[in-house]
Design goal:
CATH class of the largest domain: Alpha Beta
Distance between the termini: 58 Å
Number of helices: 14
Number of domains: 2
Shape: globular
Order of helices and strands: EHEHEHEHEHEHEHEEHHHEHEHEEHEH
Strand content: 15-25%
Structural class: alpha/beta
CATH superfamily of the largest domain: Type I PLP-dependent aspartate aminotransferase-like (Major domain)
Number of strands: 14
Largest sheet: 7 strands, mixed
């Protein structure tokens, strides 16, 4: 069994670096072992005193990863799943047919597409609204019918900011829950549960793992209620649990989370300031800039930085944006985000018809490289 010290006085940086101070008792190893067993022995009285029954819902390595995430989020419990989409859809699939859901107009395109084209087959009623507009959001709420308000802040790829505490007050007054995709904020910059959210979701593929070598998702909850139990059953029945090797890799990645997030935030801020003055850039979208419309809210609910993600709108339109991405040499033309390497992507090409993403937009995921190298590379590509 793995033992943990009392971490109540530890900072998030220490919690992540020490992986909760886990010690494998049989070996006294600093690194928890990978548990790959798919089935477990019953006790003589036919019970399972270990808490493990079968590998689909139960795995000790998975539980280690969950314990770290729950502690970082200040959550009552956490669970990890096979991908970010698995985590997000598990929440929606735990609602009931006929339930009304509000989600952002600007959000991760894969989930947006699923909500509009497939969640309705489950019987969910979906409304997309500008969640930064509290008046519009409140008007969209149907008391007694709206069961979930899904937020994403900062939102991908426009990096708009939603006031989590204000939305939570609106939702709870109407009997609805709030779930927040906090992938880009990470638990180190924003703690949605402390702001009133009920559930927080991460595509753990991104910053939590941080090395572009694991696909994973995570959920954390403020309380372990009946809805959380339904999500757990959904994960078990649909076989969405993360594999033990991936859980081990996720734990290893989270050990350097504070160092990587700080470096990415610092680089993104530096790039945002310098690109704002580049003749080839029409606009920089980054909540750390005072000119950003959500800057004041971001400053209030984000601690320690404004994230490692920004977007630029290139003068000359779509053709100029695509040409710019083609000319970089240090930045990597690839999808995803949150890794140690810096990525650049023309988002409209990925999202396709119906996307709210402007065709002249390039999304930038600032890694941990030297910011001068990063700026010099993109500046020459824009020239």
């Amino acid at each position: 069994m793995t033992s943990h010290p009392d971490t109540s006085t530890w900072s998030p940086r220490t919690i992540a670096a020490q992986a909760l101070g886990a010690i494998d008792e049989p070996s006294r190893a600093l690194v928890p072992p990978i548990h790959v067993a798919t089935t477990f022995i019953r006790d003589r009285d036919n019970a399972y005193s270990s808490g493990n029954i079968y590998g689909r819902p139960d795995n000790l390595t998975v539980r280690e990863a969950e314990a770290i995430i729950a502690t970082l989020e200040g959550a009552a419990a956490a669970m990890v799943l096979g991908s970010g989409m698995s985590a997000a859809t598990a929440v929606f699939l735990s609602l009931k047919p006929g339930d009304h859901v509000i989600a952002p107009q600007v959000m991760y395109w894969g989930l947006r597409h699923w909500l509009l084209h497939e969640a309705t087959d489950w019987g969910l009623r979906i409304d997309l609204v500008d969640t930064t507009d509290l008046v519009a959001l409140k008007a969209a709420v149907r008391p007694g019918e709206t069961r979930l308000i899904w937020l994403e802040t900062p939102s991908n790829p426009m990096w708009t900011i939603t006031d989590i505490a204000a939305v939570a007050a609106i939702a709870h007054a109407a009997g609805a829950r709030v779930a927040v995709d906090s992938t880009c904020a990470t638990p180190l910059l924003t703690r949605p549960l402390e702001l009133g959210a009920d559930i927080v979701m991460h595509s753990a593929t991104k910053y939590l793992n941080g090395h572009s070598d694991v696909i994973a998702g995570a959920l954390a909850t403020r309380v372990q209620d009946d809805f959380w139990a339904r999500i757990r059953r959904t994960r078990s029945i649909l076989g969405q649990i993360l594999g033990p090797f991936e859980a081990y890799m996720l734990i290893r990645g989270m050990r350097t989370l504070p160092l990587r997030v700080k470096a990415s935030c610092d680089n993104a801020m530096e790039l945002a300031l310098r690109l704002s003055n580049h003749a080839g850039v029409a606009e920089v979208l980054y909540p750390g800039l005072p000119s950003h419309p959500g800057h004041d809210v971001a400053r209030r609910q984000m601690q320690g930085g404004f994230g490692g993600m920004l977007s630029i709108r290139v003068r000359g339109g779509e053709a100029a944006a695509i040409a710019t991405a083609a000319r970089v040499t240090l930045w990597k033309r690839a999808t995803s985000l949150g890794g140690v390497e810096s990525l650049i992507e023309h988002r409209a090409s990925i999202e396709g018809a119906g996307s709210p993403c402007p065709p002249d937009l390039l999304r930038l995921s600032a890694g941990v490289e030297d910011p001068e190298d990063l700026y010099r590379d993109i500046a020459q590509a824009l020239a």
